[in-house]
Every structure is written in C-alpha cells, then in structure tokens.
Amino acid sequence: MIELLSSGFYTSIQDNGRFNYTDFGAPLSGAMDQNLLSFANLLVGNSTDQAVIEMAFIGPKLKFTKAQTIAISAPKVKVFLNGKSVAINHQLFVKPNDILEIKSIQNWAYLSINGHLISEEKLESQSQYHSITTNKNLKKGDILKIKKSQYKFHKKHSNVNYDMSIYDCNTLQVYTLPEYQKLSRNEKEILSTKAFTISEKSNRMAYQFEETFENRLDAINSVPVMPGVVQLTPEGKLVVLMRDAQVTGGYPRIFQLSESSINLLSQKPLKSQINFEILKLK
C-alpha cells in the first residue's frame, strides 16, 4: 500500500482516458502527456494504458508499506527517496517504510508502480474527473492499494529509453479547421509567424495564450470538439482544449493540434512561448 502524507499541488489518478462516452457529455480525460504515461508504465513492466499517479508543479509525499518497483517520468522534476535525490526516468526500488517526495515539477510528472493501481473505475476508466468520479484528485491521508501484476516482471524494462529533448521544441504542429478559412490573409499570416505566450490560467481543461487576436468571426452553433482544438473566444483569446475539456463548443475552431503537440504543449512551462506550424493533410 501507499499512503499520501501530503497531496501536493494537484495529484490525481489518470490512465489513457475515457472513450465512447462523449455522447453523454463525458470528457476524454486521461494523462495530460500520453507519451509519458506509456513510458512510465513500460519502465515498470506494465501495459502502456495502466493507471498512474499524475502530479503537477509540486508533487506528493508518499510512504510505502511494501517493497515496490516504481518509476517517475517527467522532463524535469526533483525526486527524493528518504531525503536523498534519485534519478528520474529509470526504475526505482522502494522498501517498506520508505518515504518518496516529489518536488519542483516543471509541469506534469507520472509515478508508475509495477502492478495494478486499485482505484474507482467509472465509464471504463480510472481517470479522476470532478463530475464523474467521487473525488477529482487525491488527498492527504489517502491509501492506495496495488494489485500484483499478472505478468512476470523482467528487469530489462528498465532499459527503455525516451528522448526528453523533444520537449525543447517550441513549435506546435496543427491542422486547419473550418473557421480558419474565414480569416483574412493578414490574420492567417499572424497565426503562422507570431509567438504566443502560455498563460498562467492554463489547466487540465484548456491552455490559454496571453496575446489577444482580433476576432471578427461570428459564433457558431455548438459542435463536437476534442482535445487539441484551438478555439478563438469573443475576447480574441486563443484557447487550446486539453484532456478535461468539454465535448461540445460554440467558439470558432481555428486549428487542431497533432497528438504529439498536445503532449508537448502540456509540458511547456507557463509564460514560455510557442508558435504554430500548419501541416497539410496528405
């Protein structure tokens, strides 16, 4: 078992998401960085879609009651085991009564545990979301149980590599959506050449940009939307829908981020700048 001695800034259980229920208004949810979800699980010998503990900015302090094989994956995070700094993106072996503390996360980090993390499952997913699961995140004092993996664990999984340099990129690859065609030539030029600053208001529902972009477009009828859609609000703000976003929206749709760019954006520091690269469908 694992006891949360402190919960951190925002710590929740996430897997690869909640599919097939958008018709009922259920967001996809799931890990903000799906690539690191998979990587963290591979490090400990799990299937790539297993639930993990997702942590933002300041992580939790955890006490282990049993020996476990774990891994913490993130572009940048400081992790301490019994007060001593330990490496990330590798296997870690913890013993009974060990204390793990996760600090100074750049954005999102993932803690995987060999085996099955037992938690409430709703609509075929363990991803926590405020109007679907009983709790939207983990709290101090929570006790997490781990079911032993049905698969024989091989230590070779610790040799899985992941190129963290991809997070140094500041370019988001996008495809154009219907309302983009209604923009003027000058407005299109601005979108393809200007840098945009990630707002501190960004969260699991949406990432916002600080700059104002003139909006001459009319509102549209509410239509289905998904993570990665870039909307233009009446105030002229560009908003990128993220994993917990609503499933319908009436703001003009400008872009759709590629899946890799959704993962990249989720890990960009607040106040950092990005630009858009428009791709053409083949």
State the gist of this model.
This protein has 282 residues and is mainly β. Helix content is 10%, strand content 33%.
Strand and helix layout:
Elements (H helix, E strand, L loop, with lengths): L1 E5 L3 E5 L19 H10 L8 E5 L4 E4 L3 E6 L4 E4 L2 E3 L4 E4 L4 E5 L4 E6 L2 E3 L24 E5 L23 E6 L8 H9 L2 E2 L8 E7 L10 E2 L4 E4 L4 E5 L6 E2 L3 E5 L1 H8 L6 E6 L4
Protein name: Allophanate hydrolase subunit 2 family protein
Keywords: ATP-binding, Hydrolase, Nucleotide-binding
GO molecular function: ATP binding; hydrolase activity
Describe the protein.
The chain is 10% helix and 33% strand. It folds into two domains: 2-164, no CATH class; 169-278, Cyclophilin-like (Cyclophilin), CATH 2.40.100. The chain is elongated. Strand 6 and strand 7 form a beta hairpin. The protein is built from three helices and 21 strands. With 282 residues, the protein is mainly β. The model has no long low-confidence stretch (mean pLDDT 94). It has a seven-stranded antiparallel sheet, with no helix packed on it. Strands 14-21-13-20-17-18-15 form a seven-stranded mixed sheet.
Class by SSE composition: mainly beta
Overall strand count: 21
Q: Percent range for helical residues? A: under 10%
Strand order of the largest sheet: 7-6-9-4-1-12-11
Averaging pLDDT over every residue, what do you get?
Answer: 94
Beta content: 25-35%
The DSSP helix count reads: 3
Give the H and E element order: EEHEEEEEEEEEEEHEEEEEEEHE
Q: Radius of gyration, Cα only, in angstroms? A: 20 Å
Distance between the termini: 49 Å
Indicate the overall shape. Answer: elongated
Low-pLDDT regions = none
Biggest beta sheet summary: 7 strands, antiparallel
Count the domains: 2
Protein name: Allophanate hydrolase subunit 2 family protein
GO molecular function: ATP binding; hydrolase activity
Domain Carboxyltransferase: 23-282
Keywords: ATP-binding, Hydrolase, Nucleotide-binding
